[in-house]
Amino acid sequence: MITTPQIVAHENMVKPRVLIVEDDRALSDILFYNLQKEGFNTFRAFDGREALEQARLKEPDIVILDVMLPGIDGIEVCRQIRKNPATSAAGILMLTAKTEEVDQLVGFSAGADDYVVKPYSMRVLLERVRALHRRRLANEAEEPKDDVIEHSGVRVDIRRHQAFLNDVPLELTRSEFRLLQTLITQPGRAFDRSELIENALGEDTLVLERTIDVHIRAVRRKLGDLADLIETVRGVGYRFREHTAET
Asked: In this structure, which of 16, 141, 147, 193 has its CB flanked by the most CB atoms within 10 Å?
């Protein structure tokens, strides 16, 4: 029998909602049991289409999402959850039997917050879920000094969690949004990759520094003709351009 340390589910006594998306019903049962024991309000889906419907109806705080699913795969489910404003802030922990680095990078580029490779320790998985929950509470508690930051045609509305390029909305994942927010807050300052991981993805996230490069490429692509506003600082990391070149 698996035993795990107990945690306080939520400071205001509202149980965090966790959606388990796993087509292996035996494994789903184990996850469901352990998360319920930890004090989470847990519900399930067994394929991608059902996962999207459950996410839409119940707006989970955290999604535990298997990559290999019948019908719609986990990567596409992740993308759709991020696109929906009602679920875009959910913490997403992806499960996969794959061990190739490229598969993890694809998951992160789709909007995943963290990754666990099968077979995994239940204690490790629960700690990752707790870490995602801590980050969510910290994000909700943050009171930004400036609600709106604007520079060189890019506007970031922190409270509404929206970004715009010349008044046109940008479709960013949560991690991409926080990355852009971090960079634009201090134009001209060079951030190294470890700082960006902590600020944009959270210090509890166990990811490769190369993951930041994937997110940067995605943000640049969405900035289109203004992609060079995010500059590479060789040997360090990245910065948001302080001055726009004048013609």
From this structure: 16
Q: What is the CATH number of the domain that holds 33?
A: 3.40.50.2300
Residue 11 lies in a domain: no
**Residue 91 backbone dihedrals phi, psi, to 5 degrees:** -80, 130
For residue 235, the model assigns a pLDDT of 85
Same structural domain, 72 and 184? no
- Average pLDDT over the chain, rounded to whole? 83
How many other C-beta atoms lie within 10 A of the C-beta of residue 174? Answer: 21
Residues 160 and 122 in one domain: no
Same domain, yes or no, for 40 and 70? Answer: yes
Instruction: Map tokens 């709106």 to a residue.
Output: 148
As a whole number, mean pLDDT of residues 50-59 equals 92
Read off the pLDDT band of 85 (50, 70, 90). confident
b or e along 66-94 (b: 16 or more beta carbons within 10 Å of the residue's beta carbon)? bbebeebebbebbebbbeeeebbbbbbbb
